[in-house]
Records
---
Amino acid sequence: MDDARPDPADALAAIGNERRVSMIYELQQAFREGEYALPYAELKRRVGVRDSGNFNYHLQRLVGQYVRKTADGYTLTYAGRKVASALTAGIFTKQADGTTLSASGTCYNCHEESLVARYEHERVCIACADCGEELLHNPFPPAPTTRRNDLLSAFDAWTRRWNALAFARTCSECGSRMDGELTDATPTLSVGDVPYRLRVTCRECWAMSNLPPGLLVRDHPKVVEFHASHGVDIASIPSWNLDWALHHDYLGVVSDDPLRIRLRIPLEDEELQLTFDRKGTVVSTATTR
């Protein structure tokens, strides 16, 4: 059976035109306004092209890969919506390096209330202004850094989603399978001060990360339940304020062969313990006093 999928270079070339980008934008706006599809004449009017032949030529370059023709008109495909989202997020057009603001909480290293968030190289980084410790970082689209007054809340939600998908071995970028394995290495792009991190890598695309196991289980049912039993809503705590997820005092090796590591989460007079195997799977939990 022939593979009818377009060549990637041709697919990218199809959106390399101002009028086609305008078509994608107008179809996105129509969808947001509750119009699933736009008739030919209405899309042509919105784009502002008078020449029907010219308009049709550009529209047909999009049909199939980015635009779908229906009985009601034209609508974006999933690929088209992804392009529209990338444009809206400013991934291709915005530069926001240098955005800096204060972050809540204390540094797990020096315990000072000197945390700052800085946007640089398409990442938000939470670091301590006093000791220089980098607590947390993650890729984040540029446009929201200048549009939202709740930027850090949005960044934390974005990061938690990325981590939850990584823990489920699902790539947040392309939906492909991710592989995970514990490592005691400390790569350049690593988070926290812990002896072991879970290295997760997508089998298909660029996505990879080296994450403290604690960040991956902050939404684990046992962790949520444990905090709730102490009257704590863990969803309200930013990831960079979870010392037990980021600092080496709370993570230790239980056995070397097979490799088992244990995360301790203390609250008042109790402690939740989660044990991980080499693949980063939680193999047991226990609560102690």
---
Amino acid sequence: MNPLVSIIVPTYNRCAFLGETMDSILVQQYSNWECIIVDDGSTDYTKELVDFYCSKDERIKYFKRPDSLTNGANNCRNYGFAMSIGDYINWFDDDDVMLPDFLSERTPYMNQGVEVLICSFFPVDPLLSRKAAVSLKKSFSLFRSYALYELKLVTNSVLFNRKIFKDKILFVPGLKYGDETELFLRIFYREPEPSHIIINKPLFLYRQHDASKTKQNEKPDPAFRFSVMYVALQNLSRGIERKDTELINFYYKKLVSMFFRSLDTRQMSNSVHVLGELVPLVRRINFALSLELLFWGRIFIFIGKGSYKIEKRLKHFFD
């Protein structure tokens, strides 16, 4: 049994790198795959490049994002999924490179029907100079390890059994950053957890450059901060549902910090949003703290700045 793997690659004006990605797919030791390229409206010669690869191998298929969908990688990923027929799904970025055993190393587990197959990777610079491989530890709780940043994953890291997405929302279209984090955490958060295997062996090169999301995430722009808040609020709620004090404390502190950092950078809409979502969550576990958060939060939003002393007091409430 050799399950069909759908490799889904959203792309936009990445001809400088897309050819390397395609070449790395073509030399996979495991041959039962299809590659779905979804063009997000490129204005360079992406179509001509992909047409060339399509002519070389019928397993490669080119699609243009329908005009009915808004632009963005998430809609392209979701559309690619709809166009795919594979038993397993691996979303892959258009500037990264698979090593030849990217798929074959996980074949035995695919044949067993494992739902989530995770591998390590090499972070590299734009010229593909290798850095040290990311080390992945075996995990008792997949969700918890990922939520607490103990398990480092990127979009390419996970090969999914298609069945796991039945009746599930895929990537959230409006989310600008952390889109794979939101999806992965939502899929991992279930009882019982998905069957999974972690292969602590680097199977792809993960390119990092100034135009990548990894670098953009280091900048405190409003869209990035909102996306981080969105995921953090979900995880605080999950921590409360599971009565997990470590998760609660971790994400409560993170959200309080983001409230004050948004004030510092004059991102008032983010401050208002996180306060409005955080107070009801905190009320579920500590009514008095929720009142204090609401009181100080409204004052600081009104005056347009925070207080280090009050921030410290609020953040360390559960210590």
---
Amino acid sequence: MLSEQSLQLIDMVARVGSFTAAANKLHKVPSAVSYAVKQVEDELGSTLFERHHRSVSLTPAGEYFVKQARVILTNMESMKDDTKRVANGWQPTLSIALDNIVRADKISVLIADFYRHFTNVELIIRIEVFNGVWESIANGRSDIAIGATTAIPVGGDYHFRDMGEIEWAFLISKRHPLAEIDRPLTDDELRQYPSICLEDTSREIPKRMTWLLENQRRLVVPDWIRAINCFREGLGIGYMPMHFAEPFIRSGALLSKELERPKAPSPCCLAWNGANMSPAMAWVLDYLGDSEKLHNDWFL
């Protein structure tokens, strides 16, 4: 019967090219090595080694067998090591959900530092929008959420760290019909134009909108890049996080307007599922830092 020991023995014979040399390496007598090889060959119904006077060489079948055996042996060692690490709290992957309101450019630095620190954990990055962030935590798709807004789900071991508030800018194209109005805009003036909204990525939790008036049409886009294009073309109006909008306002590409009923700042947080705590998660939570660092890194 094939076993780890028999695969190791075949591998050793293939490496040294001799039953006698393999026996010396394995602290066995040559006859025991020869007998063990013959048992494997009989079980396979194939000759693995050509026997010469003082050496052996692999047959084509033997070359294939040894190649596969080495893969199996490597995987078996990895399985043993991973099992020990799992017993000590290790997880093979860590999934981080980013709300689309945070600065995604910061994630590249986090990824680079994470992979330098962990050689045996895969990092999975997901981009979610609004309630899709909480849903990914609640259903186990993600372990950590950066930039989660509004309410924390109930019924789980959820923890959070304040990230401060997101300030919003109400934007229109510089050529928009509302551009010449120099006072806070009313709902009735706004309602006739489509509201540019990001698509909430939640599937089960009720979806949220960026901003929408009663009886106002939506223009739903997948991300802020597409939203900026729509704003610039005058296809709609709406809110965008100030840290994304500010460069376009400063350059004059977009106009920021005051509303009679402005959108309130949105509290944000770093959230995680404590039930999935692992060394990798603990490292990331420490790496991300306190509330002030989180706000400066991801919103400024």
